[in-house]
Prior knowledge:
Blueprint: E1 11-14, H1 20-27, H2 35-51, H3 53-64, H4 75-83, H5 87-105, E2 112-117, E3 120-128, E4 131-135, H6 144-156, E5 161-165, H7 176-185, E6 189-191, H8 195-204, E7 214-216, H9 221-230, E8 235-236, E9 244-249, H10 255-266, E10 273-278, H11 281-295, H12 301-311, E11 313-316, H13 320-330, E12 334-338, H14 342-346, E13 354-356, H15 363-368, E14 394-402, H16 404-420, H17 424-433
Helix pairs in contact: 2-3, 2-8, 2-9, 4-7, 5-6, 5-7, 6-7, 8-9, 10-11, 10-12, 16-17
Amino acid sequence: MTTSPSLAIRWRGAISDLSAQDRRELFDRSTSSDDNVRSETARIIRDVRTRGDSALREQSLRFDGVNLDELEVPRARIQRALDATDRRLRSAMERSARNIARAHSASMPIAMECEVEPGVVVGRRPDPLGRVGVYAPGGRAAYPSSVLMGAVPAHVAGVGEVVLCSPPREDGAPFPIVLAAAALAGVDRVFAIGGAGAIAAMAYGTETVPRVDRIVGPGNAYVAEAKLQVTGVVAIDAPAGPSELLVIVDAASSPRAVALELLAQAEHDPRACAVAVVIDEGRAAEIADALEDLLAQQPRGEIIRESLAANGALLTADSREQAIAFAIAYASEHVLLAVEDSGEMLGHLRNCGTVFLEANNSVAFGDYMTGANHVLPTGGSARSYSGLSALDFVRWTTYQRLTARAAVSLSTDVAVFAAAESLPGHAMAALAAGTIQ
Length: 437
């Protein structure tokens, strides 16, 4: 593969020219951490399990430089943060929350029953979780959108209690805009704790932080690793990693618009993945030129350059079919269809966290305002995981109902099955149930 001398893009050329090593590196975007992250995360989790609130306070001082008097943020402070929010920003957040609620209400599951044979009824009923935890990153930037994306669907699903954890600033509380989003989203309790310690606290519970049934929300490498390590103790949304975008482009697209989308994705993080698959070789060159021109205007240009040099790709496809096959194999978090007939192409796609259609669409709309969730599978996990939805905040209760006649009918075959598996007690119980009138 060749690389432009002026704009360093990790992979550049035709899909058919990718070597086996190129494909392995492109597709292996694993979220597994290095040994240091794994071991440090495990130590933090053990400390929280053993010492609870004391460990959380020490970790706050060590990692955030904040000496916390209280872990929980008072309700009055949360409300003050909302009251002090800029009017235009509050209006935008309220619009986002409304759209999230509407979109996720439409996907609420419903109970079902099926009579599989006469007198044998099997049913499933969705029950909301009792308590969920939402994590909102802090550090150098605030992410109120992550609060809305986690908490609003949980309330739509009928979750009993929603708690939020986010790292404290010097004043001992998360960013005011995060608190404002918590108020808008109806979060019940907010804790000024961050990192792997916050995940451990929500997974196991401490003297102050309640144990939850599921943890959702993005975070850094330590947060992602902590979520993986507590899986089995508590449910999580999906394995998380750096943000990803794959754009499929044809001759009908705007090179400048495509370049802007790639730049927007790459500005997230030096490890973000921005990939374009172009069904027109001439258009690929125009996109490269547009990237070079626009990059000089980007405040986060250094991050973008690192991202493109490490994980960026500008590839050409021989056909729509080859582009689709590549997208399915790549299994990206975001897919943007900058093609003439995006609706037709959508029907052939799978393994995508979320798909954006039409020429006037932007991934940024989904990040903030359309109502679709931006908590999405990364690292190729879109092959088996879906984006966060109301479905993630319920569990299913299955029940089975039999008439007396159905019990008689089933008992003999069940006894045969049980005998074949050397479980005579099962056979006896089934035959006995079949004789009860």
